[in-house]
Batch of 2 targets.
Target 1
Amino acid sequence: MHVKVNALRGLMIEDLEDLKMIARPTISPDASKILYLVTTPDGEEYTTELMVIDRMTGEKLWNIEEGNPTNPDWAPYGDNILYTDRQGMEKDEKGTSLWVAEKNTSKLVGKFNGGASQPKWSSDGEYIYFVSGVGEDDPDVKIIDKIPIWFNGEGWTYYRTKHLHRLEVASGEVSVISEGDMNVQCYAEHEGKVAYCQSANPLRPGESDLIVYDIESEERDRILSGYMIQSLQWSPDGNEIAFTGSDGSRGYATHVTVHKIAVDGGPVTNLTGKLDRGSSRRHYHDIRSMYAGGCEPIWDGDFIYFPVSNSNRHELHKVDPDNGNITPVLIGQYSIEEYSVKDGFVAYTRVNTDKTPELWVLDTSERQLTNINKKLIDEIKLQQAENFSFKQKDGAIVEGWILKPVNWKKDESYPAVLDIHGGPKSKFGDSLMFEHQLYASNGYAVIYLNIRGSGGYSQEFGDIRGEWGIWDYEDLIAGVKKALELYPWLDKERLGITGLSYGGFMTNWVITHNDMFRTAISQNSISSWTAFFGTSDIGFHFTPEQVGGNPWSNLNTYVDKSPITYANMVDTPVLFVHSWNDYRCWIDQSIEFYTALKYLGKETQLAMFMEGPHTFRSVARMSLRKRRYRLMLDWFDKYLK
């Protein structure tokens, strides 16, 4: 007897509505349970559910689905869980609330109109620490005397300072721990002492002062300055502090690595720099939950567990802080999204190019605990990536990947889309990109490359300060030529190019310097460095490093490195896509270039999405995300099919 098997279909735009996103895996203090969040599209909104399961069996123990719980943290004992939620707040009311749940029962702890980010329990469970903005905005007239005036994803920020707060659970009393007018970046508490990092330089806001504050004595000691610090962890004995960060020796291209320092100061030891790989999560993954956390080192017992960005993978390793020995923990053809460690057990979410993220655990064995997208995955065909590489003229090895169109046939030719990642120190990883799979299901091959400037490789490879549009451009062109050579079924007359942020800059740069591509889509891009310097939330410190100098000391270079300078050279039809609330690459970047091309009689169009931050393609309202995909597919279809 023959059993009929239904053929898998290609991905559709509407499938975005059915993709659930998993985030924040956290092991309980007794290591018996794991909590995690599931984000589900719900019309124009995204709802979250907090799940608690048994670590060994994966059995559901309880859940919190009322409201939208985010930023969960286990209490140091018992089953209490701290989380943030806007439940009970008006739609236009600013800020968020802190809640504490004991299993299914939740209690409001407090509302904070300045927000409550990075909420954590104190080590004794009697207090809750969080970061909240202090200051009031004037909705009518904004009197501004500092920069940046705004920040991407947050809006206007000129009026407030982010301070570290402490809330006593029993009384509800709140006190402010930090002082001054510089933002708190990160913190960690240990038995009555709080280590926190505060921005040290208003013109270089990523630089940090590391301060240790004793709650009882109220003594405050600055133990380190000059590093760019992203996260902090205390040693179990409270004598040392581990941090992820860099000394900035290569500016923002410097690898973020794991360091340690004694609690009373002294020399800094770089524990993981010898790997010549960074510990930041750099891989692109456009269905990551908007409520996902970071991917930060964890000091568990005798080891510090830390992530490693290596090629297209995101791995987990551990280092012995006493002798510096490094041991791999989780390495494979996948990317780790988030993880938690307790007593040597690891709970983590992982993703592949052709698989959605799911929760896994490493204890007595390595096994998958969830399958939240099974129904959809059983219906659709997701393409695996094929890796290729090539050696550049200067000896550098550059990696690339290609997705074949769904239902590819070797005797047919196909159009291709080249996608360029942002950053520039982001990277393409072994991680699902809905956009790539959508192109593949609509008959396109997708080419993507980790060119010079990408994360996942050596510091030298990732450092293109002052050289945007040189080796990165050469790598892109050489990579496409290599793909055409290796995959003769690609139609060289039907090539499209796109990219977002830095990828948008490179799209602009390529079409002003090359006519290889029949059409282009430039997303949330950069076209003018002088404008970017003045309007971007990071422009005044990012641009001098990446371009060199400032518009008054080095104007010629600012002009030479701006794609808009060469607008008259564009022969490629180009669609500009931009979101109105993008304060990283402000809307002026696309408007300027679009206006220039229209004035010059070029073929162009501008799609302005009237809401959404720099990353709106992943976090905007569902209808806007779907419409963006439709616009882009229609544009490519018009010129490539």
Target 2
Amino acid sequence: MRKEDFNGIISEATSRNWQRLRTRKNGRLKARANKMLSRKSVLPLEYFSDKDNVADIQRFVHFCKERNYKVDDVIYTVGVRLLKEAGIYDKPHVAAALKPLTPLTPLMPLTPLMPLTLPKNEHDLLGLLYQCFLLEGEKNRKGSYYTPFPVAKNMTSGLDFSKKQTFLDPCCGSGAFIMALEGASPSQIFGCDNDPVAVMIAKINILLKFPDEVFEPQIYCCDYLNTLNTLNALKDLNAPNALNALNALNAPNALNALKVSYIISNPPWGAVLFDEKNKPIPTRESFSVFFEKAYGQLEDGGKIRFLLPESVLNVKTHRDFREFLLENTDIQSITRYNETFSGVQTKYIDILSFRPERGGVGKSPTNNVTEYLDVRDFSTSLEMTVGKLEMTVGKLEMTVGKLEMKEGESRKVSKHCFRLTKNLNFNLLSDFELEKAQKILSKGKYTLKDSEWALGIVTGDNKKHVKSRRGKGLEPIYTGKEIEAYSLKPPKHFIKYNRADYQQVAKDEIYRADEKLVYKFISKNLVFAYDNSKSLVLNSANVLIPRVPGMSVKTVMAFLNSSTFKFLYESLFGEIKILKGNLMELPFPEISPETDKKLTNLVDEVLNGNKEAMEVIDKEIDALL
């Protein structure tokens, strides 16, 4: 992509840094952005039902890769084997379902694979094999991480199909949610995915799920976002661009007249989507676009439940998605999981929402919208000694083979928590915490909006520029590790300051200010230190010169280091980064000159070594707020 393609998106300084990065021979920083190109294989441990099967699966995959077998041929061969073992391969409806899997190139059954040992106690053997074949880069680009069975079981629990309700998974993958359904018939189940191999697996899986029924799987290979350009286009079942031309949807009541009772899915995360003009969709995040499209297909009173990255709760990028949920849906529950997908760092959650009756959403809730939602914690663990994958949530136990799931107690959270911040962060506070936060916020009259801010220095090569010992022409430079509440620890790093040598540098007058505060950037708690030595800081620390009416720099620091502000910051934002935008929302009360002087003097005591004064400061600020 050309430099001019980013005009208005990145700053000139960032542009210069990118140009500089391109000239580096070591490529270290560029490598960080190349995860999408990774050729590494990642074993999806979370998708195994039984850890004892890992060795057999690895041997099978290695056997196939050594012989350069095509992955679709491998999956087709194993699928045929499973259908034969189930005694349904020769049934006409199965043959009909398998026929359109490869309209252009027929799949080749691989005879050498038939006698190889494969486990018989995996919930989704085909999906597991496919995930083992996919490279990390391919998974990252597609956002293809299949949902573990206990999670799928949890998300589909309690669905009622007794009144001909319908189910849709618009990103069905191998069909994890479809296989987890209970009480549904094939005619009530719909799915689609843009991966032909995944669709083949999902079709075979649903045939195996209903071995005694004659039916045509209603699972389609299509790009849900692009083929469902508008919901109106779907009202005509003959629309050529809908659900892969809807070539297999002959039933007049398909998708319950295109309004669905339940939509449950694990959509792609992190993908940047493009429209027909090749411009990024404003939300950028693929899951939010999938959610909005799917919500349009939901019937009144229907349920929609998506598996999402945990960051959706409080990261600024996802504000529009949170606003959509608040203004259009009736959120029923948020479930937090303590696991991650293999090769992915972020944890995941699921959000369950209803589509209210007309007029039951927005800022003026009616009786159709609930004030509280349920919050659950779903803990998971991999038993290494016993050799089983165990996922627990508390009391209600469910055992299938070696896979265990326990559902625990939930707690109620008021939706008023979600409107405490400008970014509409989903703060999962108790009523006591909510009342306390609201009280603190109500006392605020001033903020840090008129203050001066600066990032720490980005050298571009710390090994070259930053030294661990003092030397001629070197001066101290502090990192986040040397910052503690109120004061700086002795410096451990030194630098020869020359602005032209570094990638990113703030104004000298900020670094060299007579008084400034420096704070940790990566931290769950607020940690601010006072500096009057005109020292430099690296980019693991940031700089603040506060301007709050009626408060000295030291008094502002007293508030920022107080347990009251720490509670408020963690309650409102809950991030491991201390961000300027969040700090600017913190409320500072109007105080008297006498109070300002008292707090300033107490800070001086702390700086002079009287740590007990910190407790006195805490009590003073708590009383004010």
